[in-house]
């Protein structure tokens, strides 16, 4: 059984390690230890503990969407035909399987889900809308917002 994240109290050093790792997930343990004024063994142990307690859930490379033919960012409001647990579960499962969907959030308000997707261009979005999104379980209505300019995009959490 994984340790409960609530069992670990973050101190200032843990937060410093997390901030540094968010900014550079490829940093070596030696360099991380140096930046945070720790010994390499103490640094490695703290990072191991942060991973075990679920504060660090993984590492990944951040790609330039234009270089991988995914320059069009869209947000879509999705309204379901019914708000029952089986429809929610079926829609969520379909969203998890759709590779163009980067994020999908159930929200409170005038619609049920907010979807964030990246596609090549407007023609690709039209295909995604017609072939994937409107065929997902329970979809009654969608409203699309194409992004004209990305002002800020980050996954760094303020710690």
UniProtKB/TrEMBL annotation:
TM regions (residue ranges): none
A Pfam family it matches: HTH_24
Protein name (Swiss-Prot/TrEMBL): ArsR family transcriptional regulator
Any one GO cellular component localisation term in the record: cytosol
GO biological process: regulation of DNA-templated transcription; response to amino acid
InterPro entries in the record: ArsR-like_HTH, AsnC-type_HTH_dom, Dimeric_a/b-barrel, Tscrpt_reg_AsnC-like, Tscrpt_reg_AsnC/Lrp_C, WH-like_DNA-bd_sf, WH_DNA-bd_sf
Keywords annotated in UniProt: Activator, DNA-binding, Transcription, Transcription regulation
Protein's organism: Phenylobacterium soli
Molecular function (Gene Ontology), one example: sequence-specific DNA binding
Domain of life: Bacteria
Domain HTH asnC-type as annotated: residue spans: 10-71
């Amino acid at each position: 059984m994984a340790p409960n994240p609530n069992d670990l109290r973050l101190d200032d050093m843990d937060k410093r390690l997390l901030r540094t790792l968010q900014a550079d997930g490829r940093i070596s343990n030696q360099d991380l230890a140096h930046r945070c004024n720790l010994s390499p063994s103490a640094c490695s142990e703290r990072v191991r503990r942060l991973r075990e307690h679920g504060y660090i859930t993984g590492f990944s490379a951040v790609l330039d969407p234009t270089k991988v033919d995914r320059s069009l960012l869209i947000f879509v409001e999705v309204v379901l035909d019914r708000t029952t647990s089986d429809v929610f579960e079926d829609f969520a499962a379909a969203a998890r399987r759709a590779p163009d969907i980067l994020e999908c959030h159930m929200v409170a308000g005038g619609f049920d889900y907010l979807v964030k997707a990246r596609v090549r261009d407007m023609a690709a979005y039209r295909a995604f809308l017609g072939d994937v999104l409107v065929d997902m379980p329970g979809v009654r209505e969608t409203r699309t917002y194409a992004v004209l300019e990305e002002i800020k995009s980050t996954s760094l959490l303020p710690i």
